[in-house]
Structure formats: C-alpha cells, structure tokens
Amino acid sequence: MAKTVWELDKAHSYVGFSVRHMMVSNVRGVFNDFDATVHTEGEDLSTADIVVTINPNSIDTRNSQRDEHLRSADFFKVNEYPEIVFRAHNLQHKGGEKHELQGEITIVGVTKPLTLDVEISGPAKNPWGNEVIGVVGSGSLNRSDFGLTYNAALETGGVLIGDTIKLNIEVEFVKKSE
C-alpha cells in the first residue's frame, strides 16, 4: 500500500500550554514555530508515523521578560537544545472521533513517554478540493521529569510555578500525496 503524506497547515494550527502560577491562577503560552510530519499507509490513521518539532525559542506567554527567562538555562536552554521533539508510535481508536496517541517527547535532551487524548475529525474536502483532517489534543507532563525544576517559594506557602504542564494542541493536516 502506498504511503500517504499529510502536511501541516500552519495557518490553522496551534500548540499551546498552561501552568499553575502562584498557586492561584494559570499562565498560558504558545509556541509560534513548530512543524509536524505524518505518514500513513493509505488513509489508515492507525498506521501513522508522526513527528512534531517545536522551536522553544518561539515561546510566547505575552510577557517578553518571562519568555526570555523561559529560553534561558533555568528552563529550555534554547542555545543548547534548539528543538522539542514528539515522536508518536501508537494511535488507538477509542470510539467516534476519540483516540489515544502514545509516543515520546524530548525536552532539553531528556526523553519521556507522553500520552495525548486526541479527537480526529475528517477526512473532509476543503473549499480548494484538498482532503484535510483535524486533530485536537490534550495531555499533561511534569516539567521536573525533564530537569526543569527552577522555582521560588512563596511567602504564603507553595511555589511560584506548578510542576504540571497542561498541553493544548489544535492542528490541521492536508493530504499531499499517496
């Protein structure tokens, strides 16, 4: 069976996250520079070979001072580790549009398993006659598992930055070839 290539439609895609701030609210952010490649056997998504690359230098939390700190040696060490990479190897159908996507994510040179709950819509035809699929994903990881342990104790107890990072992903792919 021929391989199908699905190309990321960056104009209709988003990679975001949130983390607890001062034990009372959440800070949200996005990565503005990312890419993904998906190869399948025909249109069988269960055979998907998925690689997502994220440029941590493109982090945007709507606060330039915080973003610079996140790029520093306290966090993403962007000069030493210019990519975050997620490689997915197992997509399990859970009914309807619901799936579970399992793989490994590498952040600052540390690789750990990551499971995402995903909803896959399509395939459908866009107004230009191209076949497209949409994927909405969510999951979480602990930043301390990757050695990202910078923090500050609060006078009232607790810490400045939570350990759990919630991931929010919305991506669209266009079928390019078979």
TrEMBL record:
Gene3D superfamilies: Lipid/polyisoprenoid-binding, YceI-like. Residues 5-174 form the Lipid/polyisoprenoid-binding YceI-like domain. It comes from Alicyclobacillus tolerans. Belongs to the UPF0312 family. It holds the Pfam family YceI. It comes from the Bacteria. This is Polyisoprenoid-binding protein YceI.
